Target: Cationic amino acid transporter isoform B
Amino acid sequence: MHEAPDKAAAAPAPPAAAAALPRRLQEWAGALARLPQLLATMAFRRRSLQDELEEAALGGTLRRSLSALDLWCLGMGQAIASGIFNLTGGAALQAGSAILLSYLLAGATALCCAAVMAEFARELPISGAGFTWTITTLGELPAMFVLGNTLAAQASALCSVLGNAAVSRGFSYFLAQLCGRPPTFFNVGSTSVNPVAFGINVVITCLVATGVRESAFFITGLTLLHLLMLSIVMIAGFTQADPSNLQPFFSGGADNCIDAAGILFFTFIGMEAPAVGAEEARNPAQLPAAIIGNASVAVVVYIFMALSLLMMVPVTQVGTPAVPVSPAAYRANAFTAAFSAAGLGHWNSFVLVTAMLGTVTSLVTLMYSCSSATAVLRQYQPR
Model:
């Protein structure tokens, strides 16, 4: 008896819903019309340092446990990774002995970038790096683009899945070579699935999750050990050094020298890592010194490592009877190829372990930086 009136009462609903659609369209059109005005008034609206400090305080106080050495090693762990083993060979085949100038050019550019980052870190000693610096100096719209780039980097890396996959895959390649196997030995069949790369990511993720102090202790220890092992590799190479191997110096030409500098600049990526730990530093005033310091040391280490490589074997004779090493092998890991050609093949295991240690150090520091940056970006998510 009562169902019929209910259905009759519900009948006018469709016209009301239909009437709401034009109203919604009008609201959207009005909002779109106001967009230029909103952009003009809000696009370059900046946040003050006090706003950032209050926002960080609302998100919780981080434990200040990073010393100056920890900050320096945080940057060094990323700036000096396995790139010296992966990129130097290809760049040397391209530029010849002029790769030394390529490293100087790349290092000078990296030092200029480090100086800018150090100045920002001095003025704004809070976590967030580029995003925080941009929103407090240029405004919200430029910061949005920086945030987009950061999120794209985070999305492409997933903080340990895809971006770290290249590094962790390098670890598995070095491990396979250490075992006397081809680089793709640990891949599953003909696919690119690599359980060793996945496993090292899981282990390091668990390590970073243990806490800041524990992660910093591990990063500092690994970085110092890696620098020591790099020094030993360098000295071993210099024992077979022949200055005549540097001639002709510009075998690749000036253009290739500059092109190689562009490639080698990527070996310095990560030198700004101390900035992401600003709120965890015992003394934030030490951030500029840590950033400039790790960039400067990285330049020196890379140049001397390249010099020891070039003086072991003439790069112009790679793939010839004088230096019977295939260009592909030299490009994949120039140091093991050069050590073998120079009669120091018994050092190859040590070289590979050094390269593996560089990948592990880079993974730990990269994951720590990603986790710190993500924690900062969470402050600005819509509520």
User: Anything to note?
Assistant: Residues 319 and 326 are 5 Å apart (CA to CA). The longest helix spans residues 348-377.
